[in-house]
User: Which sequence fits this backbone?
């Protein structure tokens, strides 16, 4: 994944789906990023799997949790009329963390920010110090909130000094690397999940079917 190209793809998808009909300032974007970290925490508090799909696997077809490791691990594999989890929205701690990263990429794409190092997610993740991602989940969430607020502090003062803006964008890249490194430590392919969630987002209706 070329993260500079991906940021532009994510932003263009957000534009196509109506999320930039009116200009959004950094405060709104930062608030939305914060919301994704909180949603990840709520998934963990609810005791749900790292990644799950709502599907018809349950006997009563109520769209309960399906937690397959791959397409062959689903109890209804081969009976697509009963279970199509792989075309549904990925849910859980990991997708919520990825949602936060996608929101960051949207803003980076909007601002035409380019990562100066090797522009791959693997490289970005490799720059993350172990002490940053080898932490318990609550500390990860607290640290992501802290970094997100630090980025906002820099970005809201970028008109006073462009160096503040540069530092703010650098922190946003650190946020992505931190979340993805934490997931990788737990066996989650962050890049694969990010591409999956992006493809799902591309398939959603205008403004995700919301009136406002």
Assistant:
């Amino acid at each position: 994944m070329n993260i500079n190209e991906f940021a532009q793809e994510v932003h263009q998808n957000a534009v196509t789906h109506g999320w930039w009909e009116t200009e959004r300032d950094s405060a709104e974007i930062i608030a939305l990023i914060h919301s994704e970290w909180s949603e990840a925490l709520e998934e963990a508090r609810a005791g749900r799997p790292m990644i799950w799909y709502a599907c018809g696997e349950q006997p009563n077809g109520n769209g309960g949790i399906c937690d397959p490791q791959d397409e062959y691990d689903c109890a209804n594999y081969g009976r697509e009329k009963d279970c199509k989890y792989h075309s549904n929205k990925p849910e859980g701690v990991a997708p919520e963390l990825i949602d936060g990263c996608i929101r960051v990429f949207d803003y980076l794409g909007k601002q035409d920010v380019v990562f100066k190092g090797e522009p791959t997610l693997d490289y970005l993740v490799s720059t993350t110090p172990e002490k940053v991602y080898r932490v318990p989940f609550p500390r990860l969430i607290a640290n992501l909130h802290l970094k997100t607020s630090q980025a906002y502090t820099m970005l809201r003062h970028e008109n006073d000094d462009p160096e503040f803006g540069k530092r703010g964008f650098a922190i946003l890249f650190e946020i992505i690397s931190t979340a993805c490194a934490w997931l990788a430590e737990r066996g989650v392919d962050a890049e694969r999940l990010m591409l999956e969630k992006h493809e799902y987002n591309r398939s959603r209706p205008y403004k995700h079917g919301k009136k406002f």
